[in-house]
Design brief:
Blueprint (H helix, E strand, L loop, with lengths): L9 E5 L16 H9 L4 H18 L5 E5 L9 H10 L3 E5 L7 H10 L3 E5 L4 H7 L4 H14 L4 E7 L7 H11 L4 E6 L15 H20 L5 E2 L6 H7 L23 E4 L4 E5 L2 E7 L5 H7 L1 H7 L20 H8 L34 H9 L2 H12 L3 H12 L1 H9 L1 H7 L6 H15 L12
Parallel strand pairs: 1-2, 1-8, 2-3, 3-4, 4-5, 5-6, 6-7
Antiparallel strand pairs: 8-9, 9-10
Length: 462
């Protein structure tokens, strides 16, 4: 079943529950489910069957399931981890590991290097005292030492920080520490999802506080880069788009015939499997949508009603009526953790607090029926703009007007700001002939470029 556009889907796979830590704020560790996940962990044969099923889905539908984020627990604690990794590599998959420093011994590092994995992410939950409180004594130093071990084996290293009401004051100091005292290539953070062990954190953020924290992060990011530090500081949360909009660095453009441009991955570009084969809507909250290998990838991804709901605006209490819906959708995991219902209003959203208003109505105008067959749902998913972008990138970049405009915006920061502030006004003022789709492409390109997610375009300017 071929499509003109090939959806790109990433799989996050918790191949084991085993871990050297049961962290005090871990949203993936839950006493009520841990024993089942541990005792019913998928066998090697079951994992191979799932990999084969995913490959069958790709061939049947013309989809691209290229990136696998393997985690746990610690994936390297599985005795057969190398066998699993090799099977994915054999099928031309990209492997990113989200693990712990404790298993990065010489032998494992050598194996990971030979497998040419694309990156290894570890966590720091604050500076040394705070991090060791959440994890265990000595964990901070082991993580810092592991960064150099990874780099010395040509494995890209990155650090993830989970922002909680308890460690919020350490975000900026930790940014500085990572940039100035380590060789980590990247650093990013996201807001805590209050499930699993994280339910033990009783304090809560509010929307105004989150907005202030995000502004401070961007200010510090700019300062550190100006000082010459090259650490890549990610903007993982979709709330960053709200800040960028207010600062005239982003505009939520989305043409009508598109399901979504960017934002929350649920239902569109991600698929989460945990150690016992349960499939979750998202790894950050326990909403089960299927079980593998009993259910096929096709049955779950194209047929599960919960995933279908996450793709449709009218199931969201407030996000579905927002002009940022097609580029944001907040974070249903955070909403679930705070309200018990992933579709309710996100208590941390500060869209209505922005001083800048949008005079263009970008809220979704059409409702897509829920009772679709597999082919109809596949076509609906294919209309996500990331799929359009991936498939039509070269064609867009052959358009002389697009190419000239991108070159102009790259070379002139002020021009770029004017365009991002009010794209339609800029297009009219400069007598440009750009469709809504092309305008969305340019804004999406720059957003992805700022995040380091698009290919080098120098060849287009030769």
């Amino acid at each position: 079943m071929e499509s003109n556009i090939s959806p790109t889907i990433s799989v996050q796979w918790h191949i084991t529950t085993n871990c050297n830590n049961k962290c005090k704020h871990c949203y993936m560790f839950d006493e009520s489910t841990y024993e089942k996940e541990k005792n019913e962990e998928l066998s090697t044969n079951q994992i191979m069957k799932i990999i084969s099923d995913i490959e069958s889905f790709e061939k049947k539908w013309g989809a691209k399931i290229k990136n696998f984020f393997l985690t746990g627990g610690d994936p390297l604690l599985r005795k057969d981890w190398e066998l699993i990794f090799k099977e994915l590599i054999k099928k031309d998959k990209n492997i990113f590991v989200m693990g712990n420093p404790e298993t990065l011994n010489k032998d494992n590092l050598n194996k990971l290097s030979n497998l040419n994995i694309k990156g290894f992410q570890m966590s720091l939950d604050g500076l040394e005292e705070t991090h060791d409180y959440y994890r265990n004594k000595g964990s901070f130093k082991r993580t810092i030492n592991a960064i150099d071990k990874l780099n010395n084996n040509d494995i890209k290293s990155s650090i993830m920080f989970t922002l909680t009401p308890e460690n919020k004051k350490e975000l900026i100091p930790l940014m500085n520490f990572v940039a100035k005292k380590t060789n980590a290539l990247g650093f990013s953070f996201d807001i805590l999802s209050s499930v699993g062990n994280a339910q033990g954190i009783k304090q809560n953020f509010n929307a105004s506080e989150i907005k202030k924290i995000f502004n401070k992060y961007l200010k510090e990011k700019k300062k550190l880069h100006k000082e010459g530090y090259n650490t890549f500081f990610g903007e993982k949360s979709n709330f960053f788009k709200l800040i960028r909009f207010e600062q005239d660095d982003y505009f939520p453009s989305a043409y009508e015939d598109i399901t979504a441009v960017s934002g929350c991955y649920i239902g569109f570009t991600c698929f989460t499997i945990i150690s016992d084969g349960s499939v979750l809507a998202c790894r950050r909250f326990p909403q089960k949508v299927g079980n593998m290998p009993e259910n096929s990838f096709e049955e779950i991804f194209l047929g599960n009603k919960t995933l279908k709901k996450f793709r449709r605006p009218y199931f969201y209490e407030e996000c579905g009526h927002c002009d940022f819906f097609k580029v944001c959708r907040g974070c249903p995991a955070i909403t679930y953790g705070l309200t018990g219902n992933a579709f309710k209003k996100n208590p941390l959203c500060f869209r209505k607090q922005l001083t800048k208003k949008n005079n263009k109505n970008l809220a979704p105008k059409t409702n897509i029926k829920l009772d679709t067959n597999y082919e109809e749902e596949f076509k609906f998913i294919s209309k996500h703009f990331s799929n359009v972008f991936n498939d039509e990138y070269s064609r867009f970049m052959k358009n002389e007007e697009i190419l000239k405009l991108i070159g102009k915006l790259i070379s002139n920061t002020n021009e770029k700001k004017q365009f991002m502030r009010e794209p339609d006004k800029y297009i009219n003022k400069n007598n440009l002939e750009l469709s809504d789709k092309q305008k969305t492409f340019i804004i999406y390109y720059f957003r992805q470029s700022d995040q380091g997610k698009v290919r080098n375009i120098k060849k287009y300017f030769v």
